[in-house]
């Protein structure tokens, strides 16, 4: 997990107790985190200095994937794309979602502005592949087609969100 104020990434035990510090340098204001099950590496966003950092938790090393200010990170089912909310949690600035190639660090897609305060996102899998689900601070959930960038509001009336996930077995967004 990230410890934003401590600028660290730590491991906790299944009962929630502290296990070890993975890294405490190179992750200033560590905020978003997502694991790549194919490599065992972690991707962490550092919103204050605007970087996506790749961490090898075994070697406890870091490398910069790219310079992006993001939160609400999500990883594609194949581990090849990391996406995150831009300008997350800044109520006066509208943001969107940017998808980054996990090998090259280059932008694969940019949704442009999604009105309502982008906060969390999840890339769809299976029959929902090619779709991105975004929860907003205004209580809406938006579906974005990452190929056409078409945005569709699929839920309204919620409260400020932070996390969203897609269940590949039921094709539902939570």
Question: What labels would you give this structure?
Answer:
174 residues; mainly beta; Neuraminidase; 2 domains; 4-stranded antiparallel sheet
Distance between the termini: 21 Å
Q: Write out the strand line-up for the largest beta sheet, numbering strands in chain order.
A: 4-5-6-7
What is the number of strand segments? 17
* Shape label: globular
Q: Give the C-alpha Rg.
A: 16 Å
Helix/strand-derived category reads mainly beta
Textual characterization of the structure:
The chain is mostly beta strands. The protein has 2 domains: 1-67, no CATH class; 71-174, TolB, C-terminal domain (Neuraminidase, 6 Propeller), CATH 2.120.10. It contains no helices and 17 strands. It has strands at 2-3, 8-12, 18-23, 30-35, 42-46, 51-56, 61-66, 70-75, 81-86, 97-101, 107-110, 118-123, 131-136, 141-145, 151-155, 166-167, 172-173. A 4-stranded antiparallel beta sheet has the order 4-5-6-7, with no helix packed on it. A 4-stranded antiparallel beta sheet has the order 8-9-10-11, with no helix packed on it. The protein is globular, with a radius of gyration of 16 Å.
Q: Summed up, what is this model?
A:
By secondary structure, this protein is an all-beta fold.
